[in-house]
User: Fold these one by one.
Assistant:
Number 1:
Amino acid sequence: MYAYDEIDRTLVNERVSEFRDQVKRRLSGELTEDEFKLLRLQNGVYLQLHAYMFRVAIPYGTLASNQLRALAHVARKYDRGYGHFTTRQNIQFNWIKLAELPDALADLAEVGIHAMQTSGNNMRNVTSDQWAGVAPGEIEDPRIWSELIRQHTTLHPEFSFLPRKFKIAITASDHDRAAIKIHDIGLRLIKNEKGETGFEVLVGGGLGRTPFIAKTIKHFVHGRDILSYIEAILRVYNQYGRRDNIYKARIKILVHELGIEKFSREVEEEWQHIRNSSLQIDDEVIEDIRSRFTYPAYEKLPHMPDELRQAAADPDFEAWRRNSVAPHKIQGYSIVTISLKPTGKPPGDATAEQMDALADLADKYSFGEIRVGHEQNLALPHVAKRDLPALWKALDKLGLATPNVNLITDIIACPGLDYCSLANARSIPIAQELTRRFANHELANLIGRLHINISGCINACGHHHVGHIGILGVEKNGEEVYQITIGGRADESAALGNLIGPGVKFDEVADVVEDIVEAYLALRERPEELFIDTVKRLGVEPFKERVYATR
Amino acid sequence: MPLVNGGKIVDDSFVKLAVDTPLPEGGDILVPAERFLGDAEAFLARAGKVGVIWPNNRDIDELVPYLGRLAAVALVFPTFRDGRAYSQARLLRERFNYRGEVRATGQVLRDQFVFMLRAGFDAFDVKKQADAEAFMQTAKRYSVFYQPTGDGRITALHRRMQLRHSEGVGT
């Protein structure tokens, strides 16, 4: 956990009082809605279909139990008793009242949580691997660097009015759980031949209406230079990024229009001016940030405790364990993913009661720590294996033990037309229907790892381009129509999915997905060949033939 | 439109010229970039201070040969959402060591004062009277800054190092 010091706390409190003043000026009419809009966006406040929506940052996906309780408190006191975890390590509240927002922010500030720059054309919440610090084989904890960059990007005096939003993600594992290749800047933590920490820097990834996979701009930037290098990229983007067309304003378009070689030359030139400035980071500064991350005092525990051996006889426990429990870097411990995808419910939602109860379980079983991943699930990062059976029983009682992590019903979806004013089509009801169709755990297990992503409009908040099966809702002649792609992925082998055929109507989507899955089961070479690998081997055609033969 | 300079509302000694306004005999003038570059030496040879109104989509490098003789550079915010002038201001101050007035013009509103001060602006054509009057109070809103800029304010990282070292003395 990162502990805020007095300096961090002061800044967040100053921000809250500034926003309180801005809300007051808006309510008195001193600020026009046009002027206020950007100010509220910079504090995570959107105006949606029914009410204001409030997006709170969970930097690099790390939460302490008291912070999760504060989120539960906000859900209960200022909203309708639940919150929605998003694909970028944020939580959203959908029914907040403008006049109460400053109080909600002040309550969150008490536990070191803020909503700065969770929307608007600025540098957004810095995201990372939700298993950071506990994943086996990780090079080093990427949250130290995430926090450094979080601080540097917060209220940046030069880059708070960019052409468009700007997202940075960091990973330090071979397997990329942070989806860095679909970010404006993706950082892959690596070591050079001298064993020094640095980053492969990728730039220009993003989804939306013109999706791009990020390209490598520099193979190694030393850790001490990472802030100046990021600053150089942003300075080029701030000056030359397009501002004439909102749909062409992301850095991915600038990189595409200039070409990565020319773009990287511009960045290099700028960087040479500023790399030996006060942006250079001393080891001491890194150590100071590192020292404010605390790590649990792990016990020496057996690899296979008796409790786990006995529980293995229970098939329900085993079904959950196989999908939800992952290896931890310390022997005797596990990382437990908490599915927020129960059958028939909106993906990513948690009630205030669930959040409170989960905070208690984190205190009891996970050294008071909770993680939030981009798949819209939570995790307990340090669970002793001997506690797994007891934890499972407790989670099951809370409706948080659905054994579907990474399976077909572990769906990523945006809020869609049920909440969002940008949406053209519903997302949540599609997700709900799919979780019912594939509710049979045996069937889901037989299918194996398969990610479905659903977006209710071209803005792609549900990351449909990188879903193994991607579903995009659009509007055509006043009707919802869904375009379906296959073969996308968001990990280290990130790729955009390909369209499988003509769009289909709302009530046909689940049938088409069933047909795609049936085609896969027939086409796969062996049970271990994952859906994504079968698509890679065969391409779209054989799927298209089977799915559209009778349509 | 009130001008804030040195933290106070002051009279603006500069007259803003349009592209085709006749050149006044004396007095301080702010000249549009295009017009200035067309006849820079003539403007600079004149009695009275000269400043340039520089658009936010033109490379500030072009102005470098004249900076030593310019009393002011006015950078433009066509809307407050367009942040290009922040980069230009930092380049003027931090790369080209420009010490004259750097003025924010256009849609200059209260809630951007802190960012502008940090980027190196020291004069502000403020859009609304109430915002101009609130300048000093608004400028003090923040006491913590995470990024180093040319304004010399100490960053959070460095303050932590100072605290660390001063704590270390007694132990």
Note: Chain B has two domains: 3-140, 143-171.
Number 2:
Amino acid sequence: MTMDPAVAEPEPATRQPVLSLRGISKGFGAVQALTEIDLDVHAGEVVAIVGDNGAGKSTLVKILAGVYSHDTGSVSFDGQPVSIGSPAASRELGIATVFQDLALCDNLDVVSNLFLGREITKGTLDEEEMEKRSWSLLRQLSARIPSVRIAVASLSGGQRQTVAIARSLIGEPRIVILDEPTAALGVAQTAEVLNLIERLRERGLGVILISHNMADVQAVADRVVVLRLGRNNGNFRVPDVSYEEIISAITGATDNVVTRRAEARNTERNAS
Amino acid sequence: MSNTATAGSAAERAADLQDERLFHGEGLTGAVESFVRRVRSGDLGSLPVVIGLIVIWAVFQILNPAFLSADNLVNLSLQCAAIGTISIGIVLVLLLGEIDLSVGSVSGLSAAVLGVTLTQLHWNSVLAVVAAVLAGTVAGIVYGLLFTRFGVPSFVITLAGLLGFLGLQLWVLGPNSSINIPFSTWLVTFAQQMFLPPWAAYALAAIAAIGLFWSDWRRSRRRRAAGLSSGSMSVMLVKSVLLLIALGVSVWYLATDRGVGAMFVFFVLLVVLMNFLLTRTRWGRAVFAVGGSVEAARRAGIKVNRIYISVFVLCSTFAALGGLLAAARLASVGASSGGTDTNLNAIAAAVIGGTSLFGGRGSAWSALLGILVIQSISSGLTLLNLDASIRFMITGAVLLLAVIIDSLSRRSRASHGQA
């Protein structure tokens, strides 16, 4: 493990993480995609997972979303060991995943998309109740959607992202995983989504944010977890870390003789 | 009347009208304006087909004054019912973005089952009808399972079904090239001689108009209770009164001849029922979702395979039902039942009526509108004593036109950001 205790000040031990991964490994044939990954997510915390292409971010997300199963290691939710065998199991635990492609139905309006698969019915569809709840949800998120009765196709990229994130909240999740929510968005729309992420944190949700964009990560995340070649390569509190430090953790510039020596010294100091 | 959201502060507006970017009109003018705006942005709905129908009727009336006679229109309505019923099923599969090319064969098979069980095995007529409809249901189950288990494109499965069920139809018929269904059978009476008495037809028209008003009014009340904008009373009233007048005049005009055929009413009721299921139930919402994006529907927890199977079953069942109506109307069943242009007319009707071939867009009403167009052309050309060859060519051209309109409006929606 290359967790660096000097910079990664862990959250107070009294607070129990909502989601906790220990020693997660996953291999695809001859390729070890993830090795001994540890990750904690607390309520009301935004954890950014960063790393180069092939670092294992997507694999980790898919394990949490129940798309893949992990080979070794343990997952606990609220301190209870759990297994995430399927996407449905992941949802039932309270993990909502917003994938990069959003998976919205372009031909349906915003209300239908928000409640897709979870429609409120009173014999027939209760459109009024769903529309009312859509508005109150979007208002809580301060989302700027002009009308919930227009097809999702006519919304901008940021608004579509907003709808996808809002939809993940319908099932009252505890953890929301956002996969590259700001990729392909303009400046203003990115800001909208970042606001939305802060809104999720205010609601006390744990947010896992996958991103390539360091500016976004530094703007909203509380903690940055760096993956490199399928291993933990750093766990920083955002206020204490510089852009350069994150980049060097991502590229592996920190993983050399000098840093390992420093790490050994730190460990010694902590032990004494 | 203001048509932009300048009037009133945000706080006193309904929850869904608070965004200043929204256009919203009030009352009748507002309704008309928003309709014009929708059409301009490529959301044509059923407008092209309604205009098309008016043009077709006008042209044929000019060419042959008998076209709009009550007698011809009554015949027209009866001709619509059988293929129109088949077309309802086609609308469903098109909504999923799939196709069923075998509805003609399935309708022929069901007619053959009816003919043989009724006249040769001497089954009870109700039992024979049930068996014939079930033949279609079974065909749909086979399609649904093949599609969901093996992932074969519906185009190919139903092309195989087109041949296979035609063969089965001929095998069921055996050596008989044609079977006559006795005129005394209730099914034949229902299809040929049963017309609503004028009072019943007027009552039905009134019920439809009142029903429309009642459902609009209830929705408006529920929306107001939920703090949402509610439609204006004047729009609701005008809509229902227009419907009442349109239905009333139609009933009056048809009553100068034989009246409104029971079979046509049956078909329209099926359309209303399917429209209800598509727009007001979770199943209907799932059908549209799967047609829009299968992957999104699957991730939303919709059991996509069940939706596919249910739609293929419904489509084939409607095809069987349509086959029965066609057989009953002709009082005969033969090797050519469900043959020739049944298949293509049913598919053409759904597309002409405005259901998109690309999935996710359409309505049960397009079966009614589309079949009216097709049968009007067919009936008009027959009145002009034109050969079947010309009829096929013109129907083909109209289908092509409908598909072009579908593609163009899709492109227009894309350029208006609503694809």
Note: The CA atoms of residues 55 and 208 of chain A lie 16 Å apart.
Number 3:
Amino acid sequence: MIKYIIKRVVMGLVALFVVSILTFFLMNLVPGGPFMSEKPPSPAVQAMMEEKYGLNKPLTEQYVTWLTDLLKGDFGVSYRMQKNRPVLTIIKEMFPTSAKVGAIAMGWAIVAGIALGCVAAYKRGKLTDSILRVVTTSGVALPTFVTASILLVVFAGGVWNILPSIVGTSSSWKAYILPCFTLGLNPMCNIARYTRSAMLDSLGQDYIRTAYAKGLATPFIIFKHALRNALIPVVSYVGPLIAGILSGGFVVETVFNVPGLGRYFVQSINNRDYPIIMGTTIFLSAFVIAMNLIVDILYRVIDPRIDLSKGVE
Amino acid sequence: MSEKNGDLLLQVEDLKVSFFTPAGEVKAVGGISYQLHHGEVMGIVGESGSGKSVEAYSIMGLLQSPGRVVGGSITLSGEDVLAYDKHQMRELRGGKVSMIFQNPMTSLNPVYTVGNQIVEALTTHKKVPREEARRRGLEMLELVGINNPEKRMKQYPHELSGGMRQRIMIALALICEPDLLIADEPTTALDVTIQAQILELMKDIQKKTHMAIIFITHNLGVVADICDRVSVMYAGRIVETGTVDEIFYTPTHPYTLGLLRSMPRVDAESYERLIPIQGTPVDMLNPPEGCPFAPRCEHAMKICLNQYPPATQLGEGHMVNCWLMQKDQVLEKEA
């Protein structure tokens, strides 16, 4: 087990290295630069800035410098958006806001998704199942910006004005309702669908018949015997998604003005704030890789037949 | 349990089970009746699709939609099982009646330990402390001949062999001391030596506990080994029923005869060949009007194709549904 985890961490580091190379060179391929804007500074000032941040050096050299700094724990400083503030500080500042919204969103998405998926599977072919299928399919099909807009119109002005439309730093809990709901809706519907199909499979297994023959109550059979066997595909979907959602949903953060990492990440790309792009990318990638590892370990916890040491190589 | 030995335990009367499929109603069980006494072992023999498992599932209330009991009655210890509500049905399952299944490889939940699943079978029906339940579980494992029960309790099903898993299935079926055990082809998926061991074990346990067993199988050899009485099913009906001796030494129904002739025997002469039953089982969607076996029967008469034969009593418990037994009356009527 320990050996396996070490192996996976090493593989993860290799993956991070590849991600960083790709991001670094792709980012530099995009036209423009951090010091261009509608009113560009004079060429002399630009040259000076480039000199200061080392942008006049060859790309490979820039990359090596960035990587050596990173290995020392230095993510660099922002060029533009929060001038000269360390990237790590910015991430540490922004991440909790995103994570708070994301955690609530994922929390309700997982609980509701699994519950609805189980209900749909148990009532397969019945009206409940059909209604749930329509709801979840719509939820999966609707883009977040559409649901966000609809919810804003309905609850924050257009029909009822009962919920705040934006999240500020000092907003009450009410401000979080809409963003958390919107962010969790799509994952919830996906989880419900994955749970339903996996539950259909596990409810048809012989051991479920055994459980009925033992005289167990139906909810007990569904949640103890069938659900655990149906969790693998759900966990595979949810794991990496948690990393993405907790780091901030870009659309939701933009629409609801949440001061989170997701929105900031996209802004940094528009601003060509290279260190922030690199920093957030590495952060997000590491998060996804870590979640994947956790998912694999969870497989073993859920299903004792899975042998982790044999899965690698 | 043994003090009630010989008393009536289960009475099935004119039980009819149908599956309502998109293609139409499949009459899987078309009206069967039998009685089972405490401590009695009854075999139900028939080929695939003869309705033998469906019949057993309806006793447990385990029929899967679109299957439904459409007629008749099931009476267990004087109570009408078909009138049970959900709660009573749950008490019956695993409490009064237990079941073991054909495929031990898939009948245990792979993600829980053996101990967990055995203990659960007991605690579902009886309020006992955990420690007590565990002790009972260990006892049961020992009873079904599993060595090192302490260790097995902590293992997962995939770490055990098929034979061992079937022993565990038996242990968890018996932990609540049911009056009746329904064994649905419990040895079919096992290889021959393990089959013999499991049969030996079931005989042994039956002797110790005196519970009644309904043994569903398509293997006549198994029946001869363990059963007191045998019912032969064909196309959803019992065509012949009698003691093991009656069925094996004086088989009367052409189908029973066919089954026996198609089975290898130890005492057969080397030149004797196995004779298969010609034809294929009936289409249960459109069963023939008369005796369902008539199209395959070499002695079929005109009446066989038109009318289902009534039961003819041959001995105290030996009954057969075949017009051949009433050949004289039939010929008289036709003349």
Note: The CA atoms of residues 74 and 82 of chain B lie 6 Å apart.
Number 4:
Amino acid sequence: MKKFIALMLLVCMLVCGFLTACNNNDGSNNPDDSGSQGSKTTHSIPTGDVTVTFYHTMGKNLSDVLVKYIAEFNKVYPNITIDQQTIGGYDDVRDQVITELQAGKQPALAYCYPDHVATYLRSKKVVDLNEYINDETVGLTQAQIDDFIAGYYAEGQQFGDTSKMYSLPFSKSTEVMYYNKTFFDNNGLKVPDHWFSTGATDDTSVEYVIKKIKEIEPTSIPLGYDSEANWFITMTEQLKTPYTQAVDKVQDRFLFNNEQNIEFCEKFRGWCQNGLMTTQAIYGGYTSGLFTNTTANEEGKVIHSYISIGSSAGATYQCPAKSDNGSYPFEVGIATIPQADASNKKVISQGPSITMLKQKDQTVNDAAWIFLKFLLTSPEFQAEFSMASGYVPVLKSAFELDAYKEFLSGANMTKDGIAALSAKICMEQESAYFTSPAFIGSSDARDEVGKLLVAYISAASTATQDELKQLFVDAYNRCVTLNQ
Amino acid sequence: MAEFNNAVKEVNVESVKASQRTSKIIRYTITYLFLGIMAIIVIFPFYWMIISSFKTMDEYRANVPTLWPQNFVFENFVTAFSKANLMDLFAHTMFVGVVSTVLSLIVTVFSAFAFARLQFKGRNLMFGLLMATMMVPGELYTITNYLTVSGRLPFVSEPVEAFDITNTFAVLIFPMLVSVFYIYLLRQTFMQIPNELYLAAKVDGTSDFKYLWKVMLPLSVSTIITITILKMMGAWNAYIWPRLVANDAAHQLITNGLRGASFTDEFGETNYPAQMAAVTIVSIPLFLVFVFLRKYIMRGVSRSGIKG
Amino acid sequence: MSKEKAVKKKKLRAVSDNIDVKNQFKGWLYLSPALILLIIFSFYPLLNTFRMAFLNGYNGLAIVGGEKFTIGIENFKTVINYVDFKLCLKNTLLLCVITVPISTTLALLIAVALNSIKPLQKFLQTVFFLPYVTNSIAIGMVFNAMFTRVGLGDLIQTQGIINNIIGIFGIEPINFVNVGSSWGANMFVVCTYIIWNAIPFKILVLLGGLQNVNKQYYEAAKIDGTSKIRTFFRITIPLVSPMLAYVIITSFIGGFKEYSSIVGIFGDGMGPGGNGQMNTLVGYVYNMLPKSNSGNASAASLILFGIILIVTAINGYVSKKKVHY
């Protein structure tokens, strides 16, 4: 035991020496390499050999498309080598970039979500893309900027200072509503377009339709919603109730604990408790699996949902498997998601963007920009990538291409055509896209509201009003104490 | 009377023998039953891994998990293989695995010997310090070690290019070479060997090194093999570190090569069946290594039996 | 241990001391290859963990961005103020206390049973090794399939294998891991998982130890007519006690760092519906790392470090008394 104490003392002494000797001395902190590149410096096309590293999460079939366009790119710029690497999932890319940033070995380009960029920003190594976009020689023309779908383009400006652009959209998805068209047609049901009933005869509300379905088919769970976090955030947008804001003070960033939000949770709680709806976490399995289910349970019943709200990119999972005689058990319809207020339509926008990180050698950044510009202003690439991925293009002109039009015309409810069908619906919702403000801790808020919604609507029927409200308080406290 | 007594004795011997036999049968039945049940429980995840790799994504996502794939698909293996240059990956992994196992064994044997047999000041303190390094979650080491191998040294404000050893085989081998777990394990084995043997050898004038080589190692073969297996598997399964420090084509290992290629599907969702296929491919050589090495465990045991 | 033996041991120790006093440096020489690597790749990072823990709000990315930090104990305050800190601590401690004895006992029984049989021994050895080459995600998937209940209210799609089995005995289905499940039920599943996961390695080590045991001891016991159970407690356990000490100490250390098994069952949310009720201290550390918040992560690690240090010291003290070399 004495040895241990001696050991601890030794360690403490070493640490003290260490602390005083090299406090804040890690890494090279040239204070002026952060943000000193004023927007006046001009950028040019590199002439020497340059290698640009690009981290992404693409599977094999998508990276094939990328490789094809890199080959195209190299015909024009043979001196720029693109080292593209699949890193794993989005979180893996984030973790790797964070670690590499600390050693100054970050890639020039990386797939990103807004939360990631908000974290990277602290290193002051994220390139303000406006420097390039507004550049006279290598910049984008107004027509090229306008070609981006506005809602997607704006995502790169949501980091507090709207004059700075920290990411460009790469490919996007949103949420759509899948419904069992066969069942709806057979029972004369209308496809709902808003959540809450305005009266007893309001037959296009979700509230009305799911009650009706439950009457027709008591062993069904009429509605399944895939992502609880998306649902909560989308409701706050549709109802214009506070969720989060990007401010300095941690306590003021998280605004979701308010009466209006409790109110809609209370509504959904009623639906859930009456067996009218479920979510992935509450159901304990994929809600797409519930929607397409044809397997009887242990009591011999087949439990279904008839409406399923999920990612537009996951359309093939919402299509049932062919039965033995080669026909589909039911036809899938796809519609825009229900709204709370017809004058304030909102639907979440997801999918990767690309961020650029400062390199030691500025020509690498210049080369990275040339590549980024080539990729993101090419409607052909956007169209081809989207057709392979199930995401939708971020350029309006991609939709005008014959190849993409042909793809959309093949839209039907088979496994092959359903992706096109969901892409079509995405375009219809285009004006309603929103993204939430991104800041350090915004991903905590997202996680917490998802869990909160689950806990709230699934809480035992004996839970008191105070206990339910406490769930909101707890979620808020967690967000704050995780970010102090 | 004497005769009668003898007869009773004989009967007793007989019945004792019989009851011994039945108790032996019962004991064996219980032993096998116990091992059988435990074996089934323990093997189930392995079975699951194999069958999952043959499932389609749709079947994997189904609400009722199936114990046997409805239709076998080999597509996942194709997916797992398609992008990776498998021969290169195997070659790199074998190289790193073998070199780091051999070096690790040498280092482990020497340190375990020092801790188990040699007397020197600060031995226990050193051992305590070693144990302490096990007590911090490894991820905190990862970041600091990454900075170190990138040439970011303490007390130096600028990165030192000469110390940047990322994208080399050395960076895959050396940082993970010493395992306190193995040193500790081998020390425990060494300490079982009676100290008298060592002292006798000393009196005979045998050098420490010779004693270690001729006496201690042969007596600890099964622990050495256990360590070999563990180290090989560690090298084979390492993922985060290789991906971080040497993800270029010339140094990619099986894990980061395969996983990077096939873990996510086009929607950014984890493709579990393909992942399972990749893991199955990675596991097979390991499994073979174990089946192969098991003979040596046996041999080592029998040898130590003769000596002891 | 008899007095006579102890005296003998003391004498020998004296002799050996005499031999080695001259060769002080030899120990360090043998240790040096490991030591050099450890200093660079283990001691230095450990030291760095201390440093980061005592710099208020230390953030690796902020350092790159040129921010400065002051020395203090703010990080520790933040960790302790985290609303779920007590819960994390409780879960961490309980997981250790429950799983280590059970898994060690089971592994010892299996190892002894394996060692005592002839037919099928090789085959079963291989079988018990298999989980070691099984991916942890596969194990997570199995547990999910076994314990999960898919459904809403009375509409149940599947109850999972375990509930079906206990249903045969007339027991009502239990909600083990899904939304609304109790902390106790979760704890049960996580412990089962950890035990399951830990057994193969322990069997490997203990079997290695058993096979190194001199067969003569058993033969002597047999001749003396010592009962099997007595042999087990008087011969087997003392002879494998160094291996036992090893697996117990390392699995305590591993148990305190438990994280991946909980993620395997519940996902990143560390609880049913992501409610975090099974979160552990290392879970908190992992939560901090994606934000590059190494200061808080280091502080939490050091708190854990302190706890493990105490437990290991106690372990070491006990094993010094009980382990037979």
Note: The first strand of chain C starts at residue 150 and ends at 152.
